Amino acid sequence: MINKNIKSSAAIISATDLKKRIQHHLNSTLGDRVICEDAYKNTPQNKQAYWQATSLALNEIIIDKLQASKVQQAKSATKSINYLSLEYLMGRLLSNNLHNLNLYKSTEKALKSLGFDLADLCEEGADLALGNGGLGRLAACFLDSLATLDYNAMGYGIHYQHGLFKQSFKDGHQIEQPDMWREFGSPWEICRPEATQLIPVYGYVEQQAQTDGSLTSVWRAGKMLKGVPWDIPIVGYNSSTVNALRLWECRADSAFDWDTLNQGDYLQAHHDQVNAETVSKVLYPNDEHDAGNELRFIQQYFFCACSIKDIISRYQLQFGPLTQATSRNFADKVAIQLNDTHPTIAILELMRVLLDEYDFSWQNAWQLAGKVFSYTNHTLLPEALEKWSVSLFEHVLPRHLTILYRINEAFLNDEVNAMWPNNEAMRARLSIIEEGEQRKVRMAHLCVITSHKVNGVAQIHSDLVKKDLFPEFNQLWPEKLTNVTNGITPRRWLKSCNPLLSELLSKHVDDDWAKNLNSLSSLSPLADNASFQKKFMAIKHQNKVALTTEIKTLTGIDVSPEAIFDVQIKRLHEYKRQHLNLLHILALYRRLLADPDLPMQPRVFIFGAKAAPGYQLAKEIIYATNKIAEKINNDTRIQDKLKVVFLPNYRVSLAEKIIPAADVSEQISTAGKEASGTGNMKLALNGAVTIGTLDGANIEIAEEVGDDNIFIFGLTVDEVKALDIKGYNPYHFYETNNEIKACLDWLDTDYFTPGRAGELSSIKQSFLEGGDPYKVLADFESYSDAQQALGVAYQDKKRWAKMAILNTALMGKFNSDRSIEDYVKNIWFLTPSV
């Protein structure tokens, strides 16, 4: 059924027209008529061809809307938001784009007449996995919402040749391989060579005397990189707007050295080309060595410099030359959001361009930078606040370092000294330069000093940013630090990924809930309705059955859909505490071995996570989980009451299968460590009940759904701080809790690794010798009790159904559309372009 409010002209395109478009691309674009013949219908090559042809047919419609959006945005002359992020987890685009254009049913009909199932074809194609975790998925959700709400927006990032990495397991160990997401191109991307940028690096700074006696800094670059943009259209839902995500590919300024090639040195002839292409080769190269560290730094600068030049170019194309006289108009028409500290160098690059290429005075350039930039902080973890060595700046970006020194000097003398006169300790604390054996640049400090607004991503996180992370900055500028709670797009994370539940909700909600998620609250009275409960839980069961098939395919493990599906899917990191989950699994296993008839609802613990290649303990946790799972899953004594599954290569498309099937959402980070979380929102929206700490957005989810519909455990932020002040001793819990001691000592044996005793000891050591920095042992007993209460609740089918329904119904606050409107109102000050 077509929504009456839909503004998209795509809604009137018929199945017949779509069929013709698909056949046209099969025959002409792909140039292969034989694939249309019945004998070839079920081959993998044929499915791939039909997916590609369908995507190309859809892209025709999308490109028309993209061009129309550009015309409308130019006509309305609205302010644009330019979103700079090193990560974008876009996933697959076919299903989401079809839903957003209201063409899913028509395309399904067209493909059915051609002998294909659309849902099957949506499984074709690689994920656009240009990110690592929540940061990249949040960016993707925000782009979706910006287009849906008809705001003029451009996303900027890197056109990685490979995503993070493709993960597999060998004897339980994580194996990393290149993610070939665009080995043969992607039907969704468009190269824009006319917007190519040249980016200088290395070299030195020369001081040149001017006629008035002043000195001007001139950067003599040692090398030029070429940034080639690729655009991926971002389709709004039930809107007139298609925006773009512009991703920069790095190439050498020239293809190869012709003279060197002719002399027979073929490898050296391509040296510059290979080095340049390495910049956009892979997300997060290992930075444990100097070369990797420098590559990461150049990556960040490269995409920031390309983006700044492009933003200025786009502005001048519409509004005329950028000069000091027109700088106020630039600030009125351009906003730039820094998604975490990765794009911080954009600040220095804008200053450099304004000073060196547009002859701005220092004061005018600095005032303009402060008006256009705003910064989102995503972490309270000190190690996640980026710092680059001063020596690296001197080597790669010497001109930017001189600008940074001047910013720092002015800040310390004008701002810090005015608030804290002659306070050297405060100057050292707030300086952008961290003194020490190796002098470093504090990128977060530069962001806060420059930006007109700095936001955290959940209320508790934003409060802690003010109180613990940047208290002095908050004292300097009480109005600068603010909050914008994260959100997710319900288009992908319910309408597209959970069609069965989507259809049920649409039958009982009058409004277009995918655009107004608050309208789901009208379902609350149905939470106690036996008929609705039955339908809701029948859909959950169908989704669980589908996931059992996926689990069997990926791992060979048989699991029952009658069991509780307990899900923890997120980046593997100690603060997210997958090892707390694992410790509890060991405890359950011991309890079942002691009493196989223990009255316990069968549980399937489902993990999905990648560990950074250089993060050894995270890899050890994966290995331990896989080896423990292997033992548990094959132990007939426990009567299939406990299963453990670690799904390989966790990514967006896999999350879209797991989330609709989840009963329990594990959000168990140490209180005060998770900025927000968005997986918690996706799982709850799909009817999973959260077990979690009072951390990040868990607190706000609890406020929305009510204490009866969530399982909260563990230390609070204040209790964690108090424990640190008192002096945390993990040995206390090891020595006084027999279950903890037995489980940890078990890891020293060869029970899970026959003949190789001690292979899992690193987990125990991290708790004891390592000091248990994330308070796993302190929270274990509370977590175990909450899990026990959860198991009892699940056995009360009516109670559990009510909890699941209310979690779906009361997630309206966590719509990324609401997040964007908060940014618009308090930070960006945009107006829709239609």
Automatic annotation (TrEMBL):
Record protein name field = Alpha-1,4 glucan phosphorylase
Question: Known InterPro entries for this protein?
Answer: Glycg_phsphrylas (IPR011833), Glyco_trans_35 (IPR000811), Pyridoxal_P_attach_site (IPR035090)
Pfam families from the UniProt entry: Phosphorylase (PF00343)
Which protein family is it in?
Answer: Belongs to the glycogen phosphorylase family.
Q: Whose protein is this, by species?
A: Colwellia hornerae
Question: A GO BP term, please?
Answer: glycogen catabolic process
> Cellular component terms, GO, for this chain's entry?
cytoplasm
Annotated coiled-coil positions are none
Keyword Transcription present in the record's keywords: the answer is: no
Top class in the EC scheme? transferase
Q: What cofactors does the UniProt entry give for this protein? A: pyridoxal 5'-phosphate
Q: Which branch of life, at top level? A: Bacteria
Its biological purpose is as follows: Phosphorylase is an important allosteric enzyme in carbohydrate metabolism. Enzymes from different sources differ in their regulatory mechanisms and in their natural substrates. However, all known phosphorylases share catalytic and structural properties.
Residues the record lists as N6-(pyridoxal phosphate)lysine modifications: 682
UniProt keyword list: Allosteric enzyme, Carbohydrate metabolism, Glycosyltransferase, Pyridoxal phosphate, Transferase
Under which EC number(s) is this enzyme classified?
2.4.1.1
Keyword field contains Chaperone: no
- Matches recorded under SUPFAM superfamilies: UDP-Glycosyltransferase/glycogen phosphorylase
* MF annotations from Gene Ontology: glycogen phosphorylase activity; pyridoxal phosphate binding
Please list the reactions this protein catalyses. Answer: [(1->4)-alpha-D-glucosyl](n) + phosphate = [(1->4)-alpha-D-glucosyl](n-1) + alpha-D-glucose 1-phosphate
